[in-house]
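Both lines are quoted verbatim for reference:

——
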Amino acid sequence: MESPHKGVHSYRLVVTRRRASEILLLHHRSGWALPRVAVHPCQRLAEQLVTEAKKGWGLDTYCLFVPRRPADDLTGEGKCAVLESERHNDKAPSGTQWALRATASGGLNLSEARLVRESLEELDGYVQEESAGPFARPGWLRELFRWTREQVTPLGICLTGRFRQLNASPTFSLIRLEAEGGAVWFKATGEPNTHELPLTLAIRRLFPRHVPRVLGVHPRWNGWLTEEVAGVSLDEAAEFADWERAATELAELQITSTGKSADLLEAQAKDLRIPQVAKRIDSFLARMSELMALQEKATPPPLTKSELETLAEKLKEACAVVEELGLPDTLGHLDINPGNIVVTGDRCVFLDWAEGCVSHPFLTFEYLREHLGRSHIQEPAAGERLATAYLRRWEAFFSPEELRRAQALAPLLAAFAYAAASEFLRSPDLLHNPQIAGYFRSLTRRMHRESVQVALGGVRCLR
C-alpha cells in the first residue's frame, strides 16, 4: 500500500473493533505488521485514511484520532492513526487477522509494538474522560446515528446508513450522513472554535435565507446538525455569473446585518470593527519587527524599521478614512473561500462560521475577490466586474466617491485584519516556527506593498 510517489505521507493504521479489545494485523514475512497507507498532506486526512482502508482491505471504518507523536520520534516513523471498524463481527480480510489487544503486540517489531501500546493508552484516556475527546471514543459513530435519527425522523428524513467522514480529531468532527433524496451534515468543534456553535445558531436566527437549516443541537459534543443545501459549491461553478451572484448576495447579507452587531458579538463573533483593528496596529508591527530581525534568507529582503513605521502610519490613516466614510459594521467572514459558498437556484448559502466576525463590510469582499484570482475562472477584468456586482447593492446608501475611497483602502485593511485576527499570532512558538514566521513576514510585506499603492492612488484622510 505504500506509494512510490513523492509528496505523500505514510501512515500505519491501528484498526480496532469490539470496543478496542481487538486490532487488525497483516501477515508480514515471518510475523505480523500494521496496515499502512499513503496519503497526500494537502487533502483531508480522515477521508483519505478511511478511503484507503476500504481500497486496500475492503474495511468499512471511521477515524477516531491521530495519536500525539512521541517527543523522541525524530524519524517520522511515528505517523499513525486509530480507526474503528464499523461492524463488530466482520471476517478478517484475506491476509489479515483480528488479534486480541493483550497479545497483538507480540508479533510486531519494536517500533510498531510501541505505536500500538501508546495509541491504545491514549484511547483509554479518552474513554475514561469523554470531555477530553468524545470522537476518540469507540462507538461514537453509532451513537451519532441514533441521535441523528431522533432529530430527523419526525421531519420525514430517512438515513440510509452511509456516510462520508471529512474531518476527525478527539474534539472536532465533520461528517455527511446520507439520507434518501439528500443528506444531513453533523459538525462539532472544540477549542479554539467552540464559539462556532452559538455563532452559527445566531446567524441562522438572524439571517435564515443565507445559512443552512439547523435540525438539531448536541450540547454535550458542542455539535449541530444541518440540512444539506442542494446546489453547486462556488469552487465547482463553471460560470463567472455564479461568482457575481455570490458577490451580490454577500452584499445583501451584509446590508441586512446592519444594526445587528451587538447580537453577533454576544454570539462570539470576532470583533474586527475598525476601532478595534486600529488598536492592534502597534503591537502587531512590534511583533513583525521581531520576526523581520530573525529572517535568515537575503531575499525577499526583510522590512526595515523605517518601513514598518511607515506601514503603521498608513494603517492608522486608512482606519481614520474608513471611519469617516461611515460604512456600517456588518457581518463578516474571514474564511469566505469558494468551498464555503453554495449557489442554489434562488440564493447563495454561506457555510462554516468559525471565522465569522463583525467588521467593515468591504474586508470580506476582498477575501472573496482574492479567491477569484486563484480560481479556474478565466474572464476579462473579472476582479473589476466582481466589484461592480458587489458595490451595486451599496450604491443606494453611499455615493460613488465614498465607495471608491472605501474600496481603495480595503485591500490594505483586509490583509491587516486577517493577520491580526490569527490565532497563530498569539502563539508563544511563533518566533521559533520558521514556517509560520515566514508566512507572517510575507503577509506584512504584502501590506507594505498595498500601502504604497494606496499612497500612489491619492487616497487621503478626509480630515
Remarks:
- Residues 278 and 316 are 6 Å apart (CA to CA).
- Residues 9-131 form a domain with the Nucleoside Triphosphate Pyrophosphohydrolase fold (CATH 3.90.79.10).
- Residues 434-456 form the longest helix (23 residues).
